[in-house]
Each structure stands twice: as C-alpha cells, then as structure tokens.
Design brief:
By secondary structure, the chain is of the alpha/beta class. It is built from 13 helices and seven strands. It folds into three domains: 140 residues, Acyl-CoA dehydrogenase/oxidase, N-terminal domain (Butyryl-Coa Dehydrogenase, subunit A, domain 1), CATH 1.10.540; 113 residues, Butyryl-CoA Dehydrogenase, subunit A, domain 2 (Beta Barrel), CATH 2.40.110; 147 residues, Butyryl-CoA Dehydrogenase, subunit A, domain 3 (Up-down Bundle). A hairpin with a 2-residue loop joins strand 2 and strand 3. Bound molecules: flavin-adenine dinucleotide. Flavin-adenine dinucleotide binds next to strand 3 and helix 13.
C-alpha cells in the first residue's frame, strides 16, 4: 500500500492529536522531524516483516544512519542524550510508522536509559561508581558504533513480574562470570549484537537483591537462539528463545554494579514504562488510518464513508479515548523521577493500563468503523489490531498487574495490613 497519506496526517494538528499542545524542546522537535523523514518507508516495509515474521533490518540501518542507536546515550559520552520524556516522544513517533521497530527499539534504548543518569542518582560506593563509569562507556561505545542491544528478561515464571529471583544464574569464577539460563520472548533474537540479561548471582540463598544486569555478546560460545516465531502480533520483533549455556563474560559485562538493579527498580518505577510509547503511537496510527480511510484519502479507496452518523460516532469514540490516553501520556512521561510520590506511582500504573488497553480498543474500533474491506491485508489495520493486543501482556507491568497494584494501593495505606 502507498503510505504517503501518513505525511499529511503526521503533520496535521487538526487530525493528529499526537503532540498538539504539548510543549516540545528544540531537540524533541528535531528528533521527531528526523523520524518523519524515514517513517513512510518503514510503514511500507512493515507489511513484509509482518507477513514473514522477519526483523526490520533495513529500518535499523536507517536508525544507525540517523545516529539513533545512541539516542539515550548521554551527550557527554557521545550520544544524543535523550532523557526519558524525549525518548518516549520519539518512540511513539517511530511506532506511528512501524510498531515492531518501536517495540524492539525500546529494548535497545532501555539498556542505555537505565544505566545513565538514573544510576548516577542511586546510592553507589565510590568503587561502584568508578566501575560503572568504565563499563557503561564501553557499552555506549558499542551502541554508538552501531551495535544493537536487546533486553531479554522473561523466563515464563514470576521473575519478570518481580515475584522471585531470576532463574538465570551468574557464577563468579577466575575467568569471569559464567551464565546459565533460558529467556523466552527475546525480542531481536538473532539480530542483536548484545543481550542485556537480568540474572541472579549464584549465592547460597539468592534473593532479588542479588539480581545482576549483564550484557552478553550474541557471538559468545554457549549463546543460542532456538524455537519458532509465529505469533499473533508484533511479528517483526522476532522474539524467540535465548539459551545461555556456560557462557563466560568478563566483569565489564555488568551494565549495573551488583545490587543496584533492585535499588533502581524500587526507586524509579517509571523505568518499566519504556514500552508504553510504542502502543500510544500505534493507537494514533490506527485512528489516523481510520480517518483517512473514511475520507477516502488512502490509496485504493475511492468511496467516502464519512457522511454516515454511525461512522462519525465511532470515530468520535476513538477520538475521546485517544485524547484520554495522550493526556495521561504527556503528564506521566513528565513525572519520571527518583522516588516519585505515591500518587505519581499510581498514576503511572493508570497510564500504562490505559494506553495498553486503549491501544487494543482503538485498533479494534478502527476495524469496525472502517468496515470489511479495511481489514484486508493490503491495508495496515488488521496488523495494527493484532500488534496492539500484545501491549497489555508485557511484564512487569501487564494490564492485570497494574490493576492489582492500583486496587491494593487505593484500599491500603503504605504498610497497612489486615489482622
Ligand atoms: C511481542 C512480544 C515481545 C516481547 N519481547 C520481550 C523482550 O524483548 N524481553 C522480555 O523480557 N520479554 C518480552 N516479552 C515477554 C513479556 O514481557 C511477558 O514476559 C510475556 O508476555 C509473559 O508471557 P507468559 O505466558 O509467561 O505470561 P503470564 O503467565 O501472564 O506471566 C508469567 C508469570 O508472571 C506472573 N504473573 C502474571 N500475572 C500476574 C499477576 N496478575 N500477579 C502476579 N503475578 C503474575 C506469574 O508468576 C506468571 O506465571 C515479549 C512479549 C511479546 C508478546
């Protein structure tokens, strides 16, 4: 399909509620404009990657050319220096054009965001600060040289939900750290150069405080990618299973010093919201497609459908949800900080829930309001419908877990228990 209708819609403040009214810095404007230069090509490639369940390699070549693999690498270390909100804006715009590119790009950038300013604000010993400075410079250097980092945490257990320590182990030897374990849904598997793996230090009684965050080179002996990849949606993420069998990595593989991950996870809850922008941009894309389709502005559509009151009503309902989601998005992405208040933390869960669920609801409504021909595979809508369903399944903040935390948080004060 010719996706050039996106050029008009991406830029039109009337039709596009994306950043209308949101204060943007010069850097944010510039980065969004750069995404727009490449976006239509990504939108057109998305059909093939969805059909084949193949990785959008050419889009990553573009991201390299744009310097975006260093998007969240601090400026003083050679990167673009996007902070959390800037990252969120850019990621939502990438997803507007290609959601699987945004979904996987999230994994790459989280490795940089989590190890930059956020760690500097935590309590580290002088030795930990020194080793962290050294290690991250090494990994940021890889990113700036065009290396792609993935972030496989999930193990099919409660570990990624924060219920217990990760089953993947890291055992210290004279030769370095020996890693063993299995990660499911390793997005970018077979396409990343490094896997940012959460694992547990091999001690007598491991707890979550023994969590380690290690960068494992994809070509290290003992690393393998196994299993099929034929899912409902987000097919271009190529999220196969990663096996680590006696993989030896040096001390410099530590993306965070020992014991720091758990501090970060409890003090910076918003760090688990880096995937949210992907589903926000996707919802906007489905909405814009529906508007363009009903106005007969999409290629191969000659019949206008906008004059029917039920279509107008359907679009209006989508618009209302989109506005609600963007309002929360803009507020919550501006609240990223160390030790946010209880209200800010609860709002973050509400934002995550809203965007992940509304994304699927907006995409579903778009299929209904546009009608039968719109769900044929020459249009992007049926793919958006499938892709959007994945958002609320993502640990650690699935839609269900967000509701659990909101419900408990509303009914119990801090530390309050029933006798
Ligand atoms: C397209 C796609 C790409 C993905 N990419 C990645 C990736 O790159 N990296 C990555 O780490 N993961 C990735 N994931 C995995 C994702 O984050 C989840 O881990 C995965 O969807 C969970 O599947 P499951 O069947 O194990 O889920 P579930 O069974 O829902 O959850 C697994 C476990 O979590 C706990 N749990 C679930 N719900 C609750 C609850 N309400 N309360 C308490 N505990 C609960 C339980 O112990 C449960 O056994 C991806 C998923 C998809 C769909």
């Amino acid at each position: 399909m010719d996706s050039s209708y996106l050029i008009k819609y991406a830029k039109s403040a009337d039709a596009n509620t994306m950043f209308d009214g949101a204060p943007l810095t010069d850097l944010q404007r510039e980065l969004l404009a750069r995404v727009d230069q490449y976006g239509v090509a990504w939108a057109e490639r998305a059909f093939k990657h969805d059909r084949e369940a193949s990785f959008p390699t050419a889009n990553y070549e573009d991201l390299k050319e744009m310097g975006f693999l260093g998007l969240c690498v601090p400026k003083r270390l050679g990167g673009i220096g996007a902070d959390y909100r800037t990252y969120a804006l850019v990621a939502s715009r990438i997803s507007y054009y290609c959601s699987t590119t945004a979904n996987t790009f999230n994994m790459h950038n989280a490795n940089a965001l989590w190890t930059a300013d956020m760690v500097d604000a935590l309590e580290l010993t002088p030795e930990q600060r020194e080793s962290h400075e050294h290690n991250r410079a090494l990994h940021y250097g890889h990113m700036l040289a065009g290396k792609i980092y993935a972030q496989p945490f999930s193990e099919g257990s409660g570990a990624a939900a924060g219920k217990h320590p990760f089953g993947t182990s890291a055992h210290k030897t004279a030769d370095g750290w020996v890693l063993n374990g299995k990660k499911i849904f390793a997005s970018l598997s077979g396409h990343a150069d490094y896997y940012g793996v959460l694992c547990t230090e091999d001690v007598a009684e491991p707890t979550r405080a023994h969590t380690m965050f290690m960068a494992v080179p994809a070509n290290a002996p003992g690393v393998s990618v196994v299993g099929d990849w034929d899912p409902l949606g987000m097919r271009g993420t190529v999220s196969r299973t990663l096996l680590l069998k006696n993989v030896v990595v040096p001390d410099t593989a530590q993306l965070m010093p020992q014991g720091v991950y758990i501090q970060a996870a409890s003090q910076y809850p918003h760090m688990f919201m880096t995937l949210t922008p992907c589903y926000m941009g996707l919802a906007q894309a489905a909405y814009d497609f529906a508007v363009a389709y009903l106005r007969a502005e999409v290629s191969d559509v000659n019949v206008k459908r906008r004059m029917y009151p039920t279509k107008q009503f359907g679009v209006a309902e989508m618009y209302v949800k989109l506005q609600q989601a963007w309002a929360l998005f803009h507020r919550v992405t501006s609240e990223f900080k160390r030790n946010p208040s209880r209200t800010e933390r609860m709002r973050a869960y509400a934002c995550q829930y809203t965007i992940m669920e509304y994304s699927a609801e907006i995409c579903s409504a778009a299929v209904k309001v546009c009608g039968g021909q719109a769900m044929l595979k020459n249009f992007p809508l049926e793919r958006m419908f499938r892709d959007s369903r994945c958002g609320s399944l993502m640990l650690p903040w699935t839609a269900e877990i967000c509701l659990d935390r909101i419900g408990h948080g509303v009914l119990y004060e801090e530390g309050e228990r029933d006798d």
